[in-house]
Amino acid sequence: MTARDDLSCRQRFASVRQRSFALAAPLSDEDCGAQSMADASPVKWHLAHTTWFFETFILEAREPGFKPYHPAFRFLFNSYYNGIGARHPRAQRGLLTRPSMAEVRAWRADVDRRIDALLDIHGDCAQLAALIELGLQHEQQHQELLLTDVQHLLSHNAMHPAYAEGAVAAAVASPMALIAFDGGVTTIGHAGDGFCFDNELPRHRQFLEPFSLADRLVTNGEFAAFIDAGGYRDATLWLAEGWDAVASGQWQHPLYWQRDGQGQWCEFTLHGLQALDPHQAVTSVSLYEADAYANWRGMRLPTEAEWEHGAASDALRQLFGHCWQWTSSSYAPYPGYATAPGALGEYNGKFMLNQYVLRGSSSATPAGHSRPSYRNFFPAGARWQMSGIRLAK
């Protein structure tokens, strides 16, 4: 790593770490400590866990005379790394009234200072730079989760509080068109020298039958027509597990939708409760809802290979920055995939079961964190992420 590369590494580290603080800035300490469900985490936990990552995977192995900031933090803020040891139960993260937000902030500042000092010693080490970059990419993932978890938390408050002031920008939707793609052999997976996660590798060939993709995302207005047509009451449209979820969860609409006093649809957003914009892309729907809607339209969801192949063309709109797009592909390893040695090998591979792939990115995804080969993944019933629908045929 050259001196210029070292400077870039320092600047990027400082920028990403500061953005996490900026995302938490509109929130009170009470906001930051609350947990709305087992699948979500408090803001304080996100800030602490991303700091734990740098202390555990970088400082502990490389800092001369390493001492942890607090021995208990190794247990409290381990997420799922069995190779590191025991951890605090995920569903009980909201019970961690200690450490305080002030102490988490102090811990972050201490680790940031120590990483900077480590770069003074090992600034020419490419392996260190790669580990720091992995930590920053990990933190950017948590920045997006922080926002979606905050939206879920605030949605439970009858005051309909806004995380950010202002209104959601109005959208304009043009008629949907289906773009045809020839079948044949295509190549998917990360290409080039830029960063990618290990689940994007290796790049490999896939065979595709001829197919079509919608040139844009499904809108709120189009999904409202599905509701009005009785979509949530027609079992023939749904996968069996999806229909069970509709019944057990009493689903009648996307997660953040509700009727106002005049019977009009509203949607809870990070800007608070807003009148539903019929032209915005529908979000916060599960794979089950996306699949049922596609069935109602006489279409289907794309495979991830179809999505990535289509994304390489200039014909598709709203690929990035609107919402993650469900695919029909199970989250599985690519041919030839191998997990990394040690605890870091737990980052992706062990989750390749009972989850589905989403492609693209959302309005909450940090700038520069999107690419055509990125494989996001969630269980089929997950609704609190900014996940939407692109149709295929």
CATH architectural group of the largest domain: Alpha-Beta Complex
Strand content: 5-15%
How is the biggest beta sheet arranged?
4 strands, mixed
* Overall shape: globular
The CATH first-level class of the largest domain comes to Alpha Beta
End-to-end Cα distance: 47 Å
Fold-level CATH name of the largest domain: paralog of FGE (formylglycine-generating enzyme)
Task: Count helical runs.
Answer: 10
- Find the count of extended strands (DSSP E, 2+ residues): 11
Any idea how many domains?
Answer: 2
SSE pattern, N- to C-terminal: HHHHHHEEEEHHEEEHHEEEE
Strand numbers in spatial order across the main sheet: 10-9-8-11
The low-confidence runs, each spanning 5 or more residues with pLDDT under 50, are none
Give me the Rg, rounded.
22 Å
Roughly what is the average pLDDT, rounded to an integer?
Answer: 96
Provide the helix percentage. Answer: 25-40%
| Fourth CATH level, the homologous superfamily of the largest domain | paralog of FGE (formylglycine-generating enzyme)
Structural class: alpha+beta
What report would you give on this structure?
- With 393 residues, the protein is α+β, with helices and mostly antiparallel strands.
- It has 2 domains: 3-155; 178-388, paralog of FGE (formylglycine-generating enzyme).
- Helix content is 36%, strand content 12%.
- It has 10 helices and 11 strands.
- A 4-stranded mixed β-sheet has the order 10-9-8-11.
- Helix 1 (3-24) runs parallel beside helix 6 (126-155) and helix 3 packs antiparallel against helix 6.
- The longest helix is centred in the middle third of the chain and has 30 residues, at 126-155.
- The N and C termini lie far apart (47 Å).
- The mean pLDDT is 96.
